[in-house]
Design a protein that fits this description.
The chain is an alpha/beta fold. It is built from 14 helices and 17 strands. Strands 5-4-8-9-3-10 form a six-stranded parallel sheet. A five-stranded mixed sheet has the order 12-14-15-17-16, with helices on one face. The chain has a two-stranded antiparallel ribbon with strand order 1-2. The structure holds adenosine-5'-diphosphate and magnesium ion. The site of magnesium ion has 4 residues, from helix 12.
C-alpha cells in the first residue's frame, strides 16, 4: 500500500461501510452487455434467454469484458452446453483467448449447485465468498460469474428464490458481478416478477427483441439507478453540509455583511442540490413503507395549503373537488409525493397561469385521483418513454418526477391513464379500493 493511501485513509471521516461503498462505486466495471455500460462491483443481473445460442452470445460478450479487465471468470453451464462447447464458442469471439485460459473456470451445474441432488443456500453463498477471496489473492480485481438456473425445478423454487434474495444483498459488499440466466419460456409472469425483484437489473435476450431495452429492463434500470444513488448520496451530502456550515458562519460575520446576498444565493443552490439528491434517493428500493388505510381526501386536505400557496405564487387557480371515496391501503408519504410531483409538473407547464384541478371520485370499485392542468401538454417523446429516468425538457429538470411517481403507483397496483394535448394534461390514477380484488 502506498504511503499516500495510508495518509488519505487516516484522514477520512467516513465509516468502514461507507469506505467500502465508496470504493465499490468508484471502480465501475464494464458490463459487456449492450443494454448497460458500466456497473459497480456487487451488481446482480439477470437475463431471460430463449435459446442456447442466445445464452452463448451473452456469455461471450460478458466474459470478454471480464477477461480483458483482469477479472476471474466462472461460467456454470447448463446440461445442454458442454464445457467443451462453452470453451470453443468463447474462443471464436474473444481475441487472444489462449492468454486467458488460467483466468476462466467452466463448471457443470451438477458439480456446483447440487449435493446429492440437494441445494443448500448457505453452502453456495460461502462458496462464492471463498471464490472472491481466492481471485483477489491471485491478483485479479474480482470475480465475474455467469450462473445457471436450468436445473431449478418446482421443488427448488422457493429455496432458490430465497437464495437469489440473499445473494442480492450479499453481493453488494463483494468484488463480484453476477449474471443469472433464466430460460424465457419456463416461467409464469408472476415468477418472472419475483426473479426480477431479486436482481438489480433484468433484460431479455431473444429473437423477438435483440437490441431494444424492454419494459422489464426499463423498470430495473430504475432499481439500479436507485441502488447507485443510495451509495453515493452520503458522499455528496457530507461535503455539502460542511460547505453550507461554513457559508452560514461567514454570513454571520459583521464585516462580510455586504456579501449577504451572495451567501444566501449559495445556500439556496446547495439546498436545491440537496433536494435533487433526495429525489434520486427515493428511487432506491430499500425504503420501509408505512402502509395503512387512508382516505385520499384526507391526504389531499393535508397538503392543500402547500399546493394553494404555490399555485397563488404561480398565478394558477387551484380547484379541489373531493368526492365520496373508499379508503385505500397506501403509505401517505408516497401518495403525497406523487401528488406533489404531478402538481409541480402541472404548474411548470403553465408559466402564464391556468387551472390546476385535483379531483377524487369512484369508478366501479376503483378510487380515482385525477390531476389536470391547462398547460402545454406532454411532448410525445416523453409519453412514449414514460417511466424512463432522466428525460426532461426543462433546463433545471431532473427527469425523475414522473419515473418516481410511476414506480410508487406501480407498487400499489394503481393504474395510470394520461390524456395530453396542447390544451392540457390529465393524469387519471385508479387505486384498488379497500376490500376489492386487485
Ligand atoms: P422534470 O419535471 O424534472 O423535467 P419529470 O419526470 O417530472 O421531470 O417530467 C419529465 C418531463 O415530462 C418534463 O420535463 C415535461 O416535459 C413533461 N411533463 C410532465 N408533466 C407534464 C405536464 N403536466 N404538462 C406538460 N409536460 C409535462
Ligand atoms: Mg417534475
Amino acid at each position: 500500500m502506498s504511503k499516500k493511501k495510508i495518509i488519505d485513509e487516516s484522514k477520512s471521516r467516513f465509516t468502514g461501510i461507507e469506505q467500502t461503498r465508496t470504493a465499490l462505486f468508484r471502480e465501475l466495471r464494464k458490463a459487456g452487455i449492450c443494454y448497460i455500460k458500466d456497473i459497480p462491483w456487487g451488481t446482480h443481473l439477470c437475463v431471460f434467454y430463449e435459446t442456447d445460442r442466445d445464452l452463448i452470445d451473452i456469455a461471450a460478450q460478458y466474459f470478454r469484458a471480464g477477461l480483458e479487465n483482469n477479472e476471474y471468470c466462472v461460467w456454470i453451464v447448463p446440461e445442454s452446453i458442454s464445457p467443451a462447447v462453452a470453451v470453443s464458442s468463447l474462443q471464436k469471439v474473444i481475441p487472444n483467448f489462449a492468454l486467458y485460459l488460467q483466468q476462466l473456470e467452466i463448471l457443470k451445474f451438477s458439480e456446483f449447485y447440487l449435493n446429492n441432488g440437494n441445494f443448500n443456500r448457505d453452502n453456495i453463498l460461502s462458496m462464492w465468498e471463498k471464490k472472491v477471496a481466492a481471485a483477489l489473492a491471485e491478483g485479479y480485481e474480482g470475480l465475474r460469474v455467469l450462473g445457471c438456473t436450468s436445473w431449478v425445478k418446482k421443488k427448488h423454487w422457493q429455496v432458490f428464490m430465497e437464495y437469489e434474495a440473499a445473494i442480492n444483498k450479499a453481493l453488494a459488499t463483494l468484488q463480484i458481478i453476477g449474471l443469472c440466466p433464466y430460460p424465457l419460456v419456463k416461467y409464469s409472469k408472476h415468477e418472472m416478477l419475483e426473479i426480477v425483484s431479486n436482481h438489480n437489473f433484468a433484460f431479455l435476450k431473444s429473437r423477438f427483441d435483440e437490441n431494444t431495452i424492454t419494459d422489464l429492463a426499463k423498470y430495473e434500470r430504475i432499481e439500479l439507478v436507485g441502488k447507485m444513488a443510495a451509495g453515493i448520496a452520503h458522499e455528496i451530502r457530507n461535503p455539502m453540509t460542511a460547505v453550507k456550515g461554513f457559508i452560514q458562519l461567514l454570513q454571520s460575520k459583521k464585516e462580510l455583511a455586504d456579501y449577504n446576498d451572495y451567501f444566501s444565493l449559495m445556500i439556496d443552490e446547495l439546498d436545491r442540490a440537496n433536494d435533487i439528491i433526495t429525489e434520486y434517493l427515493s428511487l432506491a428500493r430499500e425504503k420501509a413503507k408505512d402502509i395503512k388505510e387512508h382516505n385520499l381526501n384526507d391526504i389531499l386536505r393535508a397538503i392543500y395549503p402547500l399546493l394553494q400557496a404555490t399555485a397563488v405564487r404561480e398565478n394558477v387557480d387551484l380547484v379541489l373537488s373531493t368526492g365520496v371515496i373508499k379508503d385505500v391501503y397506501v403509505d401517505a408519504k408516497d401518495v403525497r409525493q406523487v401528488i406533489l410531483n404531478l402538481a409541480r409538473n402541472a404548474l411548470e407547464a403553465m408559466p402564464g397561469g391556468g387551472i390546476l384541478a385535483i379531483k377524487t371520485y369512484m369508478a366501479s370499485d376503483k378510487v380515482v385521483l385525477e390531476v389536470s392542468d391547462t398547460g402545454c401538454g406532454i411532448p410525445q417523446e416523453i409519453l412514449d418513454n414514460l417511466g424512463k429516468p432522466f428525460l426532461t425538457t426543462k433546463e433545471n429538470g431532473t427527469g425523475l418526477g414522473l419515473p418516481v411517481s410511476m414506480k410508487i403507483l406501480d407498487s400499489y397496483n394503481a393504474s395510470v391513464n394520461i390524456k395530453s394535448s396542447s390544451d392540457g394534461t390529465t393524469f387519471i390514477i385508479y387505486f384498488p379500493s379497500k376490500g376489492s380484488d386487485v
